[in-house]
Every structure is written in C-alpha cells, then in structure tokens.
User: Which sequence fits this backbone?
C-alpha cells in the first residue's frame, strides 16, 4: 500500500509539472525563443531591431541632394526600398577612414547578391573631394556596388546632415591628423528610411555601429569590441523585413 501511495504521489507531481511547465515550453517554441546553444544565439540577435526616436518620433534618414562619384544627383529618396549604411568620411583621412571603408567593402562583398542593400558615404571635405576624386577613391578601395554612393556637395548642408540630422559629430580642426574631426560610426537605415539598431544587454538601442575595428582585429587597444559582425547580422534582419 505504501508503494501504491508513492506512485500516486509521483503521478500527481508529474501532472502538476506538465500543467505548469509544458505550456511555457510550447509558447517558447511557438515564438521561436528557444536558444540553440550550438549557434550561440543571444537575446540581442533574436530581437527585432529598435527604432531610434527623438521626442517620441521615429528618426528617419534626413532629406538631402548631393552629387555622387559619377556626378549624378542623389537624394534620400533613392535609398527608399533598400537597407542602407551611412558614414561620414574624407578621402585624405590618414586615420580611421581607411579602416571604415575596408569594413564597408567587406560588407559589400559579403552581400554582393543583395540588390536591396545600399551605401551612402558623405565626404566632410567637399572642397577637395570632387566627384572625380571620389571616383578614383572608389576604384582604389574596390567599391563596385552600383548602389554605393560617395557623396559631395555644399559643405554646410553636409555638416548639418551629420551633426543635426544624425547627431554624428564632424568638424574641421586643423590641429588633428588630416584636419578634420569625425566619428567612426555607421548608421543603419531600414527600407522605409528609419534609423534602426539592436539593443544592448540593458535593453537600450546602441544607435550606431562602431566602424573603426575589423572583425579580424576583434578588440582594439582600448578594449572596445568590433561591431562589424553584429552589423552584418542586423543587415540580414532588415533585408528580411
């Protein structure tokens, strides 16, 4: 009899476990939230990318009209319907720009079969970086994507686009290498023109992606990790939206 009571008690425990736990497992499977340890998925990888907001409004790719390396007039509307990466650089930059554009070429080559991926590279030295100079730069760096536009135009408009439109700092400073101070960040734009990013471990949008460290380097001398690998993951997400 004691053994029989023991089986009954065990059965009750199993039943309660099934009622409480199995529905949760089902919900996670239904929502595709189960972690595959072989792939080392993280919550950030699985989550939908955040929208960047200002005063409660989703921030968009600001309006602009500039000439590209082929002397074609390009506007923000040319990027609608495509996932886009935005950077600010200049061709004579002796520091971070070469690394930034090698990273973008790496992304270009990895997604070479994706016709809905575009790049916008705005020069912060438009007086020197004419369409002709930008064309030479594109050839030197292996920029082959027809949707990669190296853009030049009115200096004030470009600086306003960077500092006010994106809140990505650029300035002319004669005492720094190359004569210009600028951020090595990439902005990620979705097909509808909204600025997007993944969230950090605290749930806050990272906003922009670090473009000055290569995947091969991994971590720089200041202990900062590369973000090209996560940028590639997030590009793939937006391409599927």
Assistant:
């Amino acid at each position: 009899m004691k053994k029989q009571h023991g089986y009954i008690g065990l059965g009750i425990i199993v039943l309660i476990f099934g009622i409480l736990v199995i529905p949760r497992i089902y919900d996670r499977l239904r929502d595709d939230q189960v972690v595959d340890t072989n792939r080392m998925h993280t919550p950030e990888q699985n989550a939908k990318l955040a929208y960047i907001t200002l005063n409660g409004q989703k921030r968009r790719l600001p309006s602009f009209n500039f000439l590209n390396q082929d002397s074609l007039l390009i506007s923000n509307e040319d990027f609608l319907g495509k996932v886009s990466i935005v950077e600010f650089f200049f061709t004579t930059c002796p520091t971070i720009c070469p690394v930034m554009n090698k990273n973008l070429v790496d992304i270009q080559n990895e997604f070479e079969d994706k016709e809905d991926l575009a790049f916008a590279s705005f020069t912060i030295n438009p007086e020197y970086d004419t369409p002709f100079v930008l064309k030479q730069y594109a050839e030197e760096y292996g920029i082959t994507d027809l949707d990669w536009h190296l853009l030049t135009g009115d200096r004030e408009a470009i600086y306003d686009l960077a500092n006010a439109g994106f809140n990505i700092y650029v300035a002319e400073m004669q005492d720094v290498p190359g004569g210009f101070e600028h951020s090595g960040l990439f902005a990620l734009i979705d097909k509808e023109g909204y600025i997007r990013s993944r969230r950090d471990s605290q749930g806050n949008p990272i906003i922009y992606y670090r473009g000055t460290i290569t995947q091969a380097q991994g971590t720089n001398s200041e202990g900062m990790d590369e973000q090209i690998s996560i940028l590639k993951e997030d590009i793939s997400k937006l391409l599927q939206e």
